[in-house]
């Protein structure tokens, strides 16, 4: 299991399109993705668009992303998943202005 904390950088936060982008990336990996808004105790399935949207993450808020591989020994897959998500969320800002 690996986890990182990312900050939402795009102006609109995690609405339907960014939630879909997170899910599309997560579904390319066998690892489970759990997402939690920092400061809250609700954990959602990162492969479920409605779950991701329910977090209501706005610009400046932080999300804890946790990847858990099925065999619990594939840390390379976990790292790749989390780094791809970090890049899209913090650097590319969901490809929004």
Automatic annotation (TrEMBL):
Domain HPr: 1-97
Cellular component, GO annotation: cytoplasm
Stored CDD domains: PTS-HPr_like (cd00367)
PROSITE patterns: PTS_HPR_DOM (PS51350)
Major location category of this protein: cytoplasm
UniProt entry keywords in alphabetical sequence: Cytoplasm, Phosphotransferase system
InterPro entries: HPr (IPR050399), HPr-like (IPR000032), HPr-like_sf (IPR035895)
Compartment(s) of residence: Cytoplasm
Pfam families, sorted: PTS-HPr (PF00381)
Biological processes annotated in GO: phosphoenolpyruvate-dependent sugar phosphotransferase system
PANTHER family named among the record's database cross-references: PHOSPHOCARRIER PROTEIN HPR (PTHR33705), PHOSPHOCARRIER PROTEIN NPR (PTHR33705:SF2)
Record-given protein name: HPr family phosphocarrier protein
Species this protein is from: Leptotrichia trevisanii
Native organism taxonomy: Bacteria, Fusobacteriati, Fusobacteriota, Fusobacteriia, Fusobacteriales
